[in-house]
Amino acid sequence: SLSIGIVGLPNVGKSTLFNALTKNDVLAANYPFATIEPNVGVVGLPDERLDKLAEIFESQKIIPAPVSFVDIAGLVRGASKGQGRGNAFLANIRDASAICQVVRAFSDPNVVHVDGKVSPKDDIETINTELILADLQTLEKAIPRLDKEAKLKKDRAAVAAAAKAAAELLDGGTTLYAGAAKAGIEIELLHELHLLTSKPFLYVFNVDEEELANAEFLASLRDLVAPAEAVFMDAKIESELIDLPEDEARELLESIGQTEPGLNQLIRVGFRTLGLQTYLTAGPKEARAWTVPIGATAPEAAGVIHSDFQRGFIKAEIVGFGDLTTAGSMSAAKSAGKVRMEGKEYIMQDGDVVEFRFNV
Ligand code: GDP
């Protein structure tokens, strides 16, 4: 399954964040792979639509879409040269589908900063530099081989050219995710090289609670990473929120000017960064969100539930979540003409409430 790798310099709050993320995990029973590795956490995608569906269908259970986070420890300055856990770290990060960098923006003088001062900009650069150096090593090894292949096979010439263009971009200090499109590099051609900086990035800024309401400060951090997405939270507060009863947690959030935990935002933004969306199913047993890539067809979506559903796909009975809740029930939505029959070509939309018809 697709996972988001959490990276960052030591002492920025990665463990605090990861522990808070996984502590409120109600998914372990539904997703047994969650417990395979200690550094993997599977958390539910917060989705209020499921509560609403469970109400309408009187479902006994709610099953949110799973999102996997992997705590990738060991990124330090010099990792690309084998410092710290060097290679073990690089192997772990290669498996992640997106990279979430935790950046320290909190000022607590009791927590030592590895480089002696709190500077989000410098930290982001340090991490980017390590990832860029790792990619440059990969490319330097690959380019002579690609050049040879290009002489023998025409279609390999484009790959070799893309590899060289990528190396040039990285040499200038830009990650592939940030700069490949603008530089006209077809990143898909380089897929086989598993380049780290071609993965989608998102950023978590771990800020002091007083700063969470400081729009100007947050904007200055956002500017450091745009167009990548940024999430702001106080990891320490998040880890306290997890242990509180719901009403007290809400009070604490309100006291720092927040409407929901930063973790919820992180899970949602992470999910989106992976290029995923959900469709919904509901009945008396469960209200459930299913994950599909953006652009998936109806049969592909059916296949997420069971391969038989995809093989025997006939059609999908679909109502948009908004139309369903406006009507108040499935039968009311049908009477209002809001329930559609969609065929094999239909492209799934986020929030489609679906029932599949299939041959067995
Ligand atoms: P990691 O090395 O990146 O995994 O960092 P940790 O999560 O272990 O955090 C390092 C230290 O910073 C710990 O003592 C945490 O309690 C502290 N810490 C983490 N997040 C925050 C925060 O948001 N505010 C403050 N003041 N301290 C934090």
Automatic annotation (TrEMBL):
Domain spans labelled OBG-type G: 2-253
Chain sites annotated for binding ATP: N11, V12, G13, K14, S15, T16
One Pfam family of this chain: MMR_HSR1
Domain named TGS: residues: 275-358
Key words, A-Z: ATP-binding, Magnesium, Metal-binding, Nucleotide-binding
Role: ATPase that binds to both the 70S ribosome and the 50S ribosomal subunit in a nucleotide-independent manner.
Protein name as annotated: Ribosome-binding ATPase YchF
Organism from which the protein derives: Catenuloplanes nepalensis
